[in-house]
Amino acid sequence: MKPLPLALQFHSISILLVIFATFVGLSCGRDTVTPTRPLADNDTLISPGGDFALGFFTPAASSNNRYLGLWYHKIPRRTILWVANRDSPVAGSTGLLSITSTGVLTIADGRNASNVVWSASPAAGLASPVARLLDTGNLVVTEDDGGDESGTSTSYAWQGFDHPTDSMLPGMKVGVDQRSGLNSTVASWKSDDDPSPGTVHASMDPRGNPELYIYSGSKKIWRTGAWNGVRFSGSPDSLTYQGGFSFSFVNDGDETTYSYVISNKSIVSRLVLREADAVVQRTVWLWESSEWSVFWYAPKDPCDRYAACGPYGACDPNSSPLCGCLVPEPAFAPRNPGNWALRDGSQGCARRTALDCRNGTDGFVTVGNLKLPESENSAVDTGLDLVGCRAKCLMNCSCTAYAAANISGVGAGAGA
Ligand SMILES: *[C@@H]1O[C@H](CO)[C@@H](O)[C@H](O)[C@H]1NC(C)=O
Ligand SMILES: *[C@@H]1O[C@H](CO)[C@@H](O)[C@H](O)[C@H]1NC(C)=O
Ligand SMILES: *[C@@H]1O[C@H](CO)[C@@H](O)[C@H](O)[C@H]1NC(C)=O
Ligand SMILES: *[C@@H]1O[C@H](CO)[C@@H](O)[C@H](O)[C@H]1NC(C)=O
Ligand SMILES: *[C@@H]1O[C@H](CO)[C@@H](O)[C@H](O)[C@H]1NC(C)=O
Ligand SMILES: *[C@@H]1O[C@H](CO)[C@@H](O)[C@H](O)[C@H]1NC(C)=O
Ligand SMILES: *[C@@H]1O[C@H](CO)[C@@H](O)[C@H](O)[C@H]1NC(C)=O
């Protein structure tokens, strides 16, 4: 066969270039939904940096329910991170995401837009609303004033990050906002093909010295232990995290929240609650082997089990039996010696010597290497050091123990 004339060869190269440019243009996608441009079932929003995609999906072949979900755009294995309409799928049809002229987000049946299955309304109506997928994966509703598009603003008319599904992404907060009354919780998917809330959920108890709990139904199964200024007192292993992750706990009267950020852009990680084994897992994506890896999880050992050794009990996973009393006999003794002998420590220990309180003969015993006890009834005074905290606790007959609430720096106190 004769070689093609030079001009024609050159021509085919330019056609290839044009096709390539068009392809790149399409894959960039758009990141906004406006009242005049809804998102159809066959379309996706892509965050400006290309890390996240938002679109409709069906969780399992057995179902034809459509959900609006968020996933990592650059990771070949589709991993759903957030679901808008987890309780209310579009049944057996195609979905449509729209925003009304006042900023109400709606998900409707794509073939009958008046069949709205889900909606989210900002507190106040907007003049020129836009829904935007940010680089963090947060879907936000804001005024389309051409202003802040950086994703750094914290005041959005509505944001998906206020309503986590089963995953905590970097920048998402779990906890309570006392100003707005918002209570952000996380709940597992009911099953692999049903994103509606399962039995495993996590929420913040903002009372006393606040901490996060994981529940299975109404039963507490794990608690993080109070934040001690550096980490949760019940998760010492979080200190083994190498660079990249930073954790934040805010308890300033305006909010009681936990969040984390990852400064290294090549680390892709989330915390996820799993229904099947009732655990919280931190997974990381391994780019080389193209798979998810479990980086951390809880609960881990038998002592992580909520109240494993009951009140005044202390659990040591390296000892047999696991349970001991916080202070050994004769000061404390097992509350139910029969069960204790059968290695059921759940009823804990009881004080055997009465407190003298006002007569000034009481003192304290130091017990170390323990998760702080549940502290919803404790009082935190960040203005006190440990010596001041001890004195205040000694003067109060209903105060039985004290500890540093913040171990970084000098250590401010908490009493119970
Ligand atoms: C989605 O489907 C509609 C109607 O079938 C079509 O007009 C549109 O081009 C499609 N959009 C994409 C991004 O495929
Ligand atoms: C569209 O949905 C609305 C609301 O559910 C319903 O009342 C109406 O009958 C539907 N129309 C059609 C053509 O199915
Ligand atoms: C937050 O919601 C969770 C789950 O519904 C609930 O268990 C918890 O008590 C709530 N916390 C507050 C402070 O309202
Ligand atoms: C970011 O993480 C990657 C993968 O773990 C690592 O190779 C790289 O050195 C890290 N970069 C920085 C600045 O820490
Ligand atoms: C204080 O000491 C007195 C005399 O020893 C005793 O009777 C009293 O019960 C003590 N008070 C308390 C609160 O233990
Ligand atoms: C804990 O103490 C450190 C050092 O004194 C201080 O910088 C930090 O703000 C404190 N944290 C809290 C939550 O009070
Ligand atoms: C005594 O301690 C209890 C429990 O920590 C606390 O609720 C109470 O306010 C304290 N009373 C005084 C007078 O400080």
UniProtKB/TrEMBL annotation:
<dbReference type="InterPro" id="IPR035446">
    <property type="entry name" value="SLSG/EP1"/>
</dbReference>
<comment type="function">
    <text>Involved in sporophytic self-incompatibility system (the inability of flowering plants to achieve self-fertilization).</text>
</comment>
<keyword id="KW-0675">Receptor</keyword>
<keyword id="KW-0808">Transferase</keyword>
<dbReference type="GO" id="GO:0048544">
    <property type="term" value="P:recognition of pollen"/>
</dbReference>
<feature type="domain" description="Apple">
    <location>
        <begin position="357"/>
        <end position="416"/>
    </location>
</feature>
<dbReference type="Pfam" id="PF00954">
    <property type="entry name" value="S_locus_glycop"/>
</dbReference>
<dbReference type="GO" id="GO:0016301">
    <property type="term" value="F:kinase activity"/>
</dbReference>
<feature type="domain" description="Bulb-type lectin">
    <location>
        <begin position="30"/>
        <end position="154"/>
    </location>
</feature>
<dbReference type="InterPro" id="IPR036426">
    <property type="entry name" value="Bulb-type_lectin_dom_sf"/>
</dbReference>
<dbReference type="InterPro" id="IPR003609">
    <property type="entry name" value="Pan_app"/>
</dbReference>
<keyword id="KW-1015">Disulfide bond</keyword>
<dbReference type="GO" id="GO:0051707">
    <property type="term" value="P:response to other organism"/>
</dbReference>
<dbReference type="Pfam" id="PF08276">
    <property type="entry name" value="PAN_2"/>
</dbReference>
<protein>
    <submittedName>
        <fullName>Receptor-like serine/threonine-protein kinase SD1-8 isoform X2</fullName>
    </submittedName>
</protein>
<dbReference type="Pfam" id="PF01453">
    <property type="entry name" value="B_lectin"/>
</dbReference>
<dbReference type="InterPro" id="IPR000858">
    <property type="entry name" value="S_locus_glycoprot_dom"/>
</dbReference>
<keyword id="KW-0732">Signal</keyword>
<feature type="signal peptide">
    <location>
        <begin position="1"/>
        <end position="29"/>
    </location>
</feature>
<dbReference type="InterPro" id="IPR001480">
    <property type="entry name" value="Bulb-type_lectin_dom"/>
</dbReference>
<keyword id="KW-0418">Kinase</keyword>
